[in-house]
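All the exercises in this workshop are built on plain-text protein records. A record pairs a protein's sequence with a compact description of its fold. Backbone structure tokens are a discrete shorthand for how the chain folds in space. Once this layout is familiar, the rest of the handout is easier to follow. As an example, a complete record with its sequence and its structure tokens follows.
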Amino acid sequence: MEKYIKPFVDVTENVFAEFIGAKLEVGNPYFSKAEAISEWDISAVIGLTGEANGAVVVSMRSALAEKLTEKLTGKPHTSIDGEVVDAVGEIVNIIAGNAKKGLEEAFRLIISLPTIIQGQNHQIKWPSEQTRVICIPFTIYGSEVFTLSVAIEAARNR
């Protein structure tokens, strides 16, 4: 499983270094249940199809989403507005697109456009209740945390 997760960790660290100018601290990955309720305010979801099915999700609190958007746009944000939604969607898009390259040895994948879910206690709909969801926590700016959640299953007709 580590060989499938490592490309996502590496890409996430690189994206935040290059686009945000911030170093990330990677926490210990853990499994989450597919039906778990999120503790985050905003999640950006990219679906994966092809020789594998699944999703890549970046989730965070609104204050961090606003701060990251300010770093990207140079303008302060005090709520989850259209630019914040776009910025979080673009972050997951870049992560999924670049991680896809690292997974091409194992699977040919197609990624969807990002979908944004926002609001407290939101829930991500994974491909199935049996989906194993790996959550990787990252710390940024010393104490703020976000997660990258990844679920990949080989397609049944493979």
